[in-house]
Fold this protein.
Amino acid sequence: MELSADTGRRLAELVHRLCGLVLGPNKDYLIRHRLEPILVREGLSSYEQLLERLQGRNAPRLHDAIVEAITTKETGFFRDQALFLAIRRVVLPACIANLKSSGGKRHRIRIWSAACSTGQEPYSLAMIVRDLVDDPDSGMSETQFTILASDISSDAVETARAGRYLASEVRRGLSEDHLKRHCSRDGKAWMITEPVRRLVQFQRFDLMQPPTQLGAFDLILCRNVLIYFDEATRRRVCQGMHGTLYPGGWLALGAAESLFGITDRFETVRVGRTLLYRKPGEPV
Ligand SMILES: C[S@@+](CC[C@H](N)C(=O)[O-])C[C@H]1O[C@@H](n2cnc3c(N)ncnc32)[C@H](O)[C@@H]1O
């Protein structure tokens, strides 16, 4: 379907307003490729008609459909193995030491997977936590951990909450050992088992909103989403996360993302092949 330069610009502005995504140089292709199914579904014959309908009472429903269609949900279990190794070997032990030295002021380690897509990232974290609490030498129990997993996409959050994955999805990153211990067969698919699922709470959350309502965290994973935002949005999101981390709390970004030129409020910590960010200050 034809997409004029002006209509393309207006749709790109709308997408930016709705979820912060910048469509970049190949925006016409992206708009056509991802939004055309909406036009077909709605019985519209042009992008101009879509813009018109966005003025009417269907706007909220269409906004949701646009966000669903335009966001990239690419993910996998233990995506970037080195990071999950660093979380297991360095980050969680540091969080546990903080909790234990808080003298009873704090009761839980709080982790946030801030753009969790279809759930593979928070379940990877939950599997690490499950392995840890199942080890009697850890001295930790599952009630001492909460993992919040959020995404702007309601569809992604629903899929994540269901915890059911195709064989092709579990093959992407899940070891035989994790598959055996933390998943059970469900026809041709696999279900994440209850002891892992109950460590994770899912909710829809738009990173354009300030995260203060979510409480404070020891570790935030905000991975492979900042790349889609412009610099001002990245700065705002990272400063919001800085505000919501406990002193001494950790931030993990995607392998292609960094805080360089965005904020200097974090210390960088190299763990093996992974770069992590830490909020300075004495842990509470
Ligand atoms: C490429 S996936 C990354 C998933 C996971 N963090 C990973 O690294 O595998 C990007 C996710 O960011 C979500 N997203 C995009 N804009 C968002 C926003 N404004 N607020 C919250 N999530 C957003 C998308 O819906 C998508 O699920």
